Amino acid sequence: MSTIISGSQLRTVLLGTRVEKATGTLASETKTLFTIAGGKVAITSIVGEVTTTITVANAYKLQANPTVGTTKDLCAATDIGTTDTPAGNLLGFQGLTGDSILTGPGAVPTIKQPIVVNTGTIEHVSAGTDGAITWVLTYIPIDDGASVVAA
């Protein structure tokens, strides 16, 4: 049986280009995960997978930090460590600024509407000191030549 369109091609058609970034061991810091260049992009999904268990209290959030303009939270800071977040758990949010990060298999929603960001960075703000997360972001360029790369 032949395949007309592969899974990766279907993902690209539905969600756009895929970019992945591993955080390394979390530290109490603000760290750039992704760099947006060349103009505006629409983030169609962003999902984290915990790769090393998070066991220390950690008010964690993602934020957009444009080259020109105001830094804006993409989700509310959420404690992902006081109650351990085990390796394999997924992290996500619906795309509304006040939404907390949701965690657990099957708990991660899709973004209800794309999040538009301009040239700059997507950062994580971590207050904890253990665990690791790999983030996968999909996007569609709004401006010709706009792109996202892992930092």
Structure in a nutshell:
The protein has 151 residues and is mainly beta.
Output the radius of gyration: 15 Å
Q: How far is the N terminus from the C terminus?
A: 40 Å
Largest sheet: 6 strands, antiparallel
Beta-strand content: over 45%
Helix content: under 10%
Q: What's the number of helices?
A: 1
Mean pLDDT: 92
Number of strands: 12
Structural class: mainly beta
Rough outline: globular
How many structural domains does the protein architecture include?
Answer: 1
Low-confidence parts: none
| Pattern of helices and strands | HEEEEEEEEEEEE
Fold and architecture overview:
6% of the residues lie in helices and 45% in strands. The mean pLDDT is 92. It has 1 helix and 12 strands; from the N terminus they run H-E-E-E-E-E-E-E-E-E-E-E-E. It has one domain. The longest helix has 9 residues, at 7-15. Strands 1, 3, 7, 8, 9 and 11 form a 6-stranded antiparallel beta sheet that branches. Strands 2, 4, 5, 6, 10 and 12 form a 6-stranded antiparallel beta sheet that branches. Strand 4 and strand 5 form a beta hairpin. 31% of the residues are buried. The chain is mostly beta strands.
Fold topology:
Elements: H1 7-15, E1 17-22, E2 29-37, E3 41-52, E4 59-66, E5 72-73, E6 78-79, E7 90-92, E8 102-103, E9 115-117, E10 120-126, E11 132-141, E12 147-150
Provide the descriptors you would attach to this structure in a database record.
single chain, mainly beta, 6-stranded antiparallel sheet, 1 helix, globular
